[in-house]
Protein: Glycosyltransferase family 2 protein
Amino acid sequence: MLAIVIPYYKLIFFDATLQSLAYQTDKRFKVYIGDDASSENPTDLLNKYKGKFDFVYHRFESNLGGGSLIRQWERCIALSSNEEWIMILGDDDILGNNLVESFYNQYKEFNELCNVVRFASVVLNEQDYTISEIYEHPRLEKGIDFFIRKLKWETRSSLSEYFFKREVYLKYHFKEYPSGFYSDDRAWIDFSEDKPIYTINESVVTIRISDSSLSGTADKDILKQAEYLYLKYFYENKLSSLLKKNRLFVLKKIEFYYYFSHTVNFKSWFYLYTKYWSNFDIRELYRFHKRILLKILKN
Structure:
């Protein structure tokens, strides 16, 4: 069976989320709702859905999400039982009616092959207007290839589009980045291990971006810091696994963060310099020297 975990906080779009669960054509799942000490009590709304799908509601007495979304996700997962596969569903996101059915229809194809399964997605605004194309993915994709596609803005991704195996979650957990940004992206790469990410494009998850959502109100400085920490992990640990052109792309992203932060020391710059040399490309090396010279002259 599947565990669908909802870290609840906002009531405004929650009805649409619950409705999408009630409309599932296959009810072989259980929902675990963890209320992050919200001031917006959902119990009246939840009563409306009793008997329509299997769910457990638990209200936590203290708020964690305001300080650490990761700790809130993880205590909500702890509400679940021993289901093999887990999804963390946002309290404003919507599952396609056939999502669970399509998961089970393709289960034999991916269960031994993959640790992470994702679905196609589309973005919705707070007025219920679709504001993006439907994002589909390769049927099978290495985690590191997904990392590059997302980094280059060739695709999008968010937490609610994924199922992952409990055993790999317990092995790696989610890594803490500021406001939870990029923590899910890092997880899909950790959780997938050396196995591909499997995509089910036949079902779509609708992701809502609004003034009530974290994505819709993101602080740019916090987002930039989270992106840097996420990139830094690959920069220091997985750079060699990328193609040369992608290694240079990552180096440039790190370099531009250094310009942005104004807090990086000489040692960091020197380490970056050696990375450019070890991934020798005369044009990129020339441009790097030119940017450094301009930066020095400007200061």
